[in-house]
Amino acid sequence: MSSALLAGIVGLAALDSLNPATIAGVALILLAPLPRRLGTALAYVAGAYLAVLAVGVAVYTGADLAADAVSGGLVWVRRGALGLAALLLLVAAVRRLRPQQRSAVVLPRWFGAWTAAPVGVLVTAADLPNAFPYLIAIERLVTAGVPLESGLWVLAGYAVVYCLPCLVLLAVGTAHGERVRRRLRRVYERIGQARAVPRSIPAALSLFLLAAAVAAVAAQV
């Protein structure tokens, strides 16, 4: 596996790690009056890690088998991964063309140290359909003919990078306590409460152009 391929996958993982849904979970835990805040947050991040890794392994092994078993399978794996990424971007673009009413982001009443990991799995898995960088990274692994065992190790590292922003936020929040929580409360008051999100034509256009670019690449492979 070349250093260029590995660097590209690390870059995709870094882009994918800026996931507001997963990061918001850690922020809410830091704001909540929980008795074991650190352990609960770590369990939540562990659940997110397992969700990313499990989905990646399932998609990667399936794509690897399809590439080997079907004539021209590698081409279809590449087209499928890139085509799905383009479709997800297109759906996101369409959503930005109409106003949306977003509910307040809150932890459920039963959330705690024993339920944090399952919640981390559910929240992250629910948002993974929007993780088009992950699909592109898997497509690159399959296209490069990376051995299955090595590819699985790369996916394990991808999941670590995905969780890094959560771990950094948790470390800073634990070290600086109330100062960080004050800033998180201000952020929550702006974007975490129930609110109406107006449509954004510039954002929709940007997503549409990106979807068209990815679709063009898929059509040429």
How is the secondary structure organized here?
Blueprint: H1 3-16, H2 20-31, H3 37-69, H4 73-95, E1 100-102, H5 116-127, H6 132-143, H7 148-192, E2 195-197, H8 201-220
Antiparallel strand pairs: 1-2
Helix pairs in contact: 1-6, 1-7, 2-3, 2-7, 3-4, 3-5, 3-6, 3-7, 4-6, 4-8
**Average pLDDT for all residues:** 83
Amount of beta strand: under 5%
Please tell me how large the radius of gyration is. Answer: 19 Å
Instruction: Note the quaternary state here.
Output: single chain
- Let me know the number of strands: 2
Query: What is the tally of helical segments?
Result: 8
Number of domains: 1
Low-confidence stretches: none
Helicity range: over 70%
Shape: globular
Structural class: mainly alpha
Cross-sheet strand order for the largest sheet: 1-2
Distance between the termini: 21 Å
Tell me about the biggest sheet?
2 strands, antiparallel
